[in-house]
Amino acid sequence: QITLKESGPTLVKPTQTLTLTCTVSGFSLSTSGEAVAWIRQPPGKALEWLALIYWDDDKRYSASLKTRLTITKDTSKNQVVLTMTNMDPTDTATYYCAHRPLAAAGYYFDYWGQGTLVTVSS
Amino acid sequence: QSALTQPASVSGSLGQSITISCTGTGSDVGAYNYVSWYQQHPGKVPKLMIYNVSNRPSGVSNRFSGSKSGNTASLTISGLQAEDEAYYFCSSYSITSTLVVFGGGTKLTVL
Q1: By the 8 A CB rule, do B106 and B20 touch?
Q2: Which of A85, A93, B1, B17 is the S-S candidate for B78 at Cβ 3.0 to 4.6 Å?
């Protein structure tokens, strides 16, 4: 059974860097075809895709946030880490990590973490 | 502003059918058959309902169906049930550098 769980700070100050960790189980981040994404949702608003990392360490980023995002993985710890620099109150959102089905055609996400609400405020 | 356009709200009576549209461009919805739909109840995690335009994951009711024409995808829910009341988000692969785009979401009210 695939599970994902996000962890990280619930409150960050403006200009700080956010680091979120997604711990996965039920699959290996080194298995060919696997990929994990980060997606966020401001309160009462739409989903926004942020970044995705593949099993082979290839990475993709949202064009609008690319300069602020870094996605990495630690296969030995079954973790995917997202860092976002220069946080702003508009970055207040629930941050989800999500699993892309193995070798899927297209980009969709079948398993999601519970999400972690990050508030940006001084 | 979301990349894909959805109606803010739709409503239907119990047992009826509704359709939610999702309009994009030739760089996303119209580019490939890689449109997906998610259901989200308030305070809950999004749930995949449709992938690659018209495919249902195991366990999703066959009352949910998807289609696409040009740059517009659609989600149809037939035989509306009370538990269908939720927000629905469409998503698409994009050939731009932003790999995945979402719609703004549609609130479905079951009357």
Answers
A1: yes
A2: B17
Residue A2 · residue A23 · CB < 8 Å: no
Cα R_g (chain A), whole angstroms: 14
A61/B contact by beta carbon, under 8 A: yes
Alpha carbon separation from A43 to A1, A92, A117, B77, B82 (Å, rounded): 29, 8, 9, 26, 24
- Answer yes or no: do B46 and A96 touch at CB < 8 A: yes
In chain A, what residues touch B46 (CB-CB under 8 Å)? 47, 96, 109, 112
Mean pLDDT for the stretch of residues A58-79? 97
The 10 Å CB-count burial string (b at 16+, else e) for B12-44 is beeeeebebbbbbbebbbbbbbbbbbbbbeeee
Tokens 């469409």 found at: B90
Contact flag B34-A107 (C-beta cutoff 8 Å): yes
